[in-house]
Design brief:
The protein has twelve helices and twelve strands. The strands form three sheets. Strands 2-1-5-4-3 form a five-stranded antiparallel β-sheet. It has 455 residues and is of the alpha+beta class. Among the domains are: 69 residues, Signal transduction histidine kinase, dimerisation/phosphotransfer (DHp) domain (Helix Hairpins), CATH 1.10.287.130; 148 residues, Histidine kinase-like ATPase, C-terminal domain (Heat Shock Protein 90, 2-Layer Sandwich). The protein starts with a helix and ends with a strand.
């Protein structure tokens, strides 16, 4: 996606502050609607119960007056919208059809047994209230239609409308404040991420806000610190590699110029200069080859020629070369590779691993200290081991020994170090061979590097 398209998409998106404010407003409106419906329902029920109680009191009064004053009639005592249903001794109902229907559905005829009857019934869209009372020779029922709230309903609606408007205003204010509170640390995180994208690694985010937002800020800070350390290590690695490349190049160029300028004219001097050029060119070629192998390790076309290999014989063959190199530095070689250690692997890469570990050990090995090359079978796997009697490493160094350039950065100036490529390359090669490599202290006093390859 292009930058202009991304900007247009960002403009179309609503901000977090807007979304939180709208969410709070929606919650407030939904709550107000639920409250309005509940309040209206409760008000209707309360009004109906009050009307039922009023009708019951009226019916009791009428029944009492008719008992005390037999000369009075129902028509004289019942006024207003209440309708009268007369109930005969046989339970027959007489009166207006609608009132009779309501009284019949509430079993008003049961008053002939001497018990009052109270009930409510729905007739189409109306609620009918019924109160029946017994009398000598039958009884009567008062029927009242319960009308919906009018004036009270209007007042209730007005009150709810005002409450809803006030709640919406409060929700909008609260949502806006909450949104600003949430958005502020997120804006800091966004600003820090943009600085990281621009190449700046010194910016940090205040760890504030809710737990999730604070964790996001802390994670961005950790990312910035990790990138800062990684890039610093890469710079150190490049400086180290540049130094390693420059040293043999300087020797090759210097002796080549001396020969070309005729400074070295004697045959012995020319031959010595030629040997130096060949040696430094070999160092340069070895370093470039390691760099290329390290770069190709992750590629799909990295070639492995797997076959049947005897690791013990591979160690014995390598010992011929390393015995002479140890003798030249005043140390001595120990070989622990009796019998046969068969395994299927790439013999060239396995030898490259062995040579890389031996070269790394010999570099800092003091005079008289041993260099041990070992091969054995252990727990169904082939084990290749390189140990030395050198100064060794610290526990933290063993844990990060295969990180590119780490040991070079820590020990440069304190002991002889390489370019920082060797152990990283060995670790990558062992992984491509399907094995595992570990580092730890050796019984000889120095470091031990153990390669395990499944048989």
């Amino acid at each position: 996606m292009s930058s202009a398209s991304a900007d247009r998409t960002d403009r179309r998106r609503t901000t977090l502050a807007t979304r939180v404010t709208l969410a709070c407003l929606a919650v407030a409106l939904v709550a107000a609607a639920v409250a309005a419906l509940s309040s209206t329902r409760l008000a209707g029920l309360a009004d109906r119960d009050a009307s039922q109680a009023e009708l019951a009191a009226h019916a009791d009064l009428v029944a009492s007056l008719l008992t005390e004053h037999p000369d009075l009639t129902l028509d004289e005592l019942v006024r207003g919208d209440d309708e009268v249903v007369r109930i005969g001794p046989d339970g027959r109902l007489a009166g207006a059809p609608r009132a009779v229907l309501a009284a019949g559905r509430t079993a008003a005829a049961d008053v002939t047994s001497g018990r009052p009857v109270s009930g409510q019934v729905r007739l189409r869209a109306s609620t009918m209230l019924v109160e029946a009372r017994p009398l000598d020779g039958g009884g009567f029922a008062l029927v009242r239609e319960q009308h919906p709230l009018l004036l009270g309903g209007v007042r209730l609606a007005r009150t709810l409308l005002v409450a809803t408007a006030a709640g919406a205003v409060v929700a909008a204010i609260a949502g806006s404040g909450l949104a600003r509170l949430l958005a502020r640390p997120l804006r800091h995180v966004t600003s820090a991420a943009r600085e990281l994208r621009a190449g700046r690694r010194d910016g940090r985010v205040p760890v504030e806000g809710p737990r999730e937002v604070a964790e996001l800020g802390a994670t961005v800070n950790e990312l910035a610190e990790t990138l800062q350390r990684s890039e610093a290590r890469q710079r150190e690695f490049l400086l180290s590699v540049s130094h390693e490349l420059r040293t043999p190049l300087t020797g090759v160029a210097g002796f080549a110029e001396s020969i070309a300028d005729g400074v070295l004219s004697e045959p012995d001097e020319v031959r010595a200069a030629g040997r130096t050029i060949v040696r430094e060119a070999g160092r340069l070629e070895h370093l470039v080859s390691d760099l290329l192998d390290l770069a190709r390790l992750g590629a799909d076309d990295f070639r492995l020629d797997v076959g049947d290999v005897d690791l013990a014989q591979l160690v014995r063959d390598a010992a011929r070369v390393w015995s002479a190199r140890c003798a030249a530095t005043g140390s001595h070689l120990v070989v622990e590779a009796d019998g046969s250690v068969p395994v299927r692997t790439d013999p060239v890469r396995a030898r490259q691993v062995l040579d890389g570990l031996a070269e790394n050990a010999l570099r800092a090995l003091p005079q008289g200290a041993p260099l041990v090359l070992a091969a054995r079978t252990q727990d169904g796997a082939a084990v290749l081991e390189v140990r030395d009697g050198g100064p060794g490493l610290t526990e933290s160094d063993y844990a990060g020994a295969f990180q590119r350039g780490l040991l070079n950065e820590r020990y440069r100036g304190r002991r002889p170090v390489g370019s920082g490529i060797g152990l990283a390359l060995v670790d990558g090669l062992v992984g491509r061979l399907g094995g595992r490599i570990t580092a730890g202290p050796a019984t000889e006093g120095g470091a031990a590097f153990t390669v395990t390859i499944p048989v």
